[in-house]
UniProtKB/TrEMBL annotation:
Species for this entry: Candidatus Pullichristensenella stercorigallinarum
Protein name stated in the entry: Iron-containing alcohol dehydrogenase
UniProt cross-references to InterPro entries, sorted A to Z: ADH_Fe/GldA, ADH_Fe_C, ADH_Fe_CS, BDH-like
Keyword list, A-Z: Oxidoreductase
MF GO annotations: alcohol dehydrogenase (NADP+) activity; butanol dehydrogenase (NAD+) activity; metal ion binding; methylglyoxal reductase (NADPH) (acetol producing) activity
Length: 381
């Protein structure tokens, strides 16, 4: 194990119907004016909005609505939210949605307390926020684990950049599997694949010493695969949805990263692909992972062999990669970039830009050159 300090700020409420219990316990601790933040309207169709607004009203809160947070939330949307928080004197933010809503709110929370532009502060001055408007997260689509960390992934359209901005972690998270019942099947599976990716990317960082975190990561991967397969049989299996919801939180609440370095090169490539195409995050990862792993298989053969055995019951590193590729097909996830929904045609020129601008990780099995990232992307076309 590498040296570590572990502490966590997010209290988690998990169960069917737990929003009422959570909000009754948590809202008395917050100020009167609550920013109720959500996405494109799914919460209004599935009853979550009505349930939460009733609980907020019962608690005597004044609601300020912040709606229309899009998948792959933009920097402009963050600034709109931060202006609203300042203008309306918001005391508390309740983010209701998937990773996009939660991420947008984390940065809204921090930006609202700052005079300077948060992107400039982090990327030009190398400083990070130290305060934020308190927030809670009600998860309606699982996969990213965004509800249990302070890092957000934001698309800055003018800069053709998608990447991390540090914001505020939610002080509590509501995980009710029933809230995910209305998520479209492809989003359920792409979200779960994102969870699998987080665990794989963490496990493949180049820490080679024995590490209990690796055992936990492999258990999360195995559980994610088992429960995705249960959903392929019955997409409404709520027990499986619940398992995946906690797998998702576990993969990004820091536990798997304790005492080790992480990889996350596939994520860096996918994020920049998202900056140019606005593609779905989990689907982008499903396309990129097999190609990336073909390139680094020999650089981490022992780890891939263990992954093969423990996650897919396969007997070699190569067989494990084949099993992962077959699993992606079995789930009906995309296997080529041309299958992704994209705002532009995905051409070699676009992929060159992605390869030229994505972050390059130094603590993966082998740091890649930009030319090799371009090759990987071209193999996915
Ligand atoms: O906007 P609405 O109408 O709510 O529809 C959303 C959206 O279209 C829909 N949805 C959510 N809950 C629903 C529902 N539809 C029906 N019923 C419900 N209960 O699902 C669609 C996708 O939502 P989104 O939040 O975009 O998905 P996801 O949770 O996969 O989040 C993706 C974003 O998170 C970032 C990604 O890059 C991407 O921007 N990530 C955040 C991470 C983090 N903070 O730790 C880590 C990840 O690696 C990832 O990068
Ligand atoms: Zn992810």
């Amino acid at each position: 194990m590498d040296k570590f300090t572990y502490s966590y700020p997010t209290k988690v409420y998990f169960s069917a119907g737990c929003a009422a219990q959570a909000l009754k316990q948590e809202l008395p601790k917050t100020g009167k004016t609550v920013l109720l933040a959500y996405g494109g309207g799914s919460v209004k169709k599935n009853g979550v909005y009505d349930e939460l607004t009733a609980l907020l009203a019962q608690a005597g809160k004044e609601i300020v609505e912040f709606s229309g947070i899009m998948p792959n939330p933009t920097y402009a949307k963050v600034q709109e939210g931060a202006r609203l928080v300042r203008e309306r004197g918001v005391d508390f933010i309740l983010a209701v949605g998937g990773g996009s809503v939660v991420d947008c709110c984390k940065v809204v929370s921090a930006q609202a307390m700052l005079d300077e532009d948060i992107w400039d502060m982090q990327y030009r001055s190398g400083k990070f926020p130290t305060a934020g408007i308190p927030m809670g997260a009600v998860v309606t689509a699982s996969g990213t684990g965004a509800e249990m960390n302070a890092g957000a992934v934001i698309t800055y359209e003018e800069k053709q950049w998608k990447g991390p901005i540090l914001g505020t972690a939610a002080s509590f998270a509501v995980l009710d599997p029933d809230y995910t019942a209305s998520v479209p099947p492809m989003q359920v599976l792409s979200g779960a694949f994102d969870t699998l990716s987080h665990a794989m990317e963490t496990y493949l960082g180049n820490s080679d010493a024995d590490n209990v975190s690796d055992d936990v990561a492999l258990a999360i991967m195995r559980n994610t695969v088992v429960n995705m397969r249960r959903l392929l049989v019955d997409i409404n299996d709520m027990q499986a949805r619940g398992n995946l919801m906690w797998d998702s939180a576990m993969a990004e609440n820091g536990i798997l990263k304790v005492g080790r370095l992480t990889d996350f090169q596939a994520h860096q490539i996918e994020h920049q692909l998202g900056a140019y195409t606005d593609c779905n995050h989990g689907q982008g990862l499903a396309v990129i992972h097999p190609a990336y792993y073909r390139h680094i298989l020999k650089d981490a053969e022992a780890k891939f062999t263990r992954f093969a055995r423990e996650v897919f019951g396969a007997d070699s590193a190569q067989a494990g990669l084949e099993a992962l590729t077959a699993f992606i097909r079995e789930c009906g996830l995309p296997t080529r970039l041309s299958e992704l929904k994209s705002k532009v045609e995905i051409t070699p020129e676009v992929l060159r830009k992605v390869a030229d601008t994505c972050n390059i990780i130094q603590c993966n099995p082998r740091p890649l050159e930009r030319e090799e990232i371009y090759e990987i992307l071209m193999e996915c076309l």
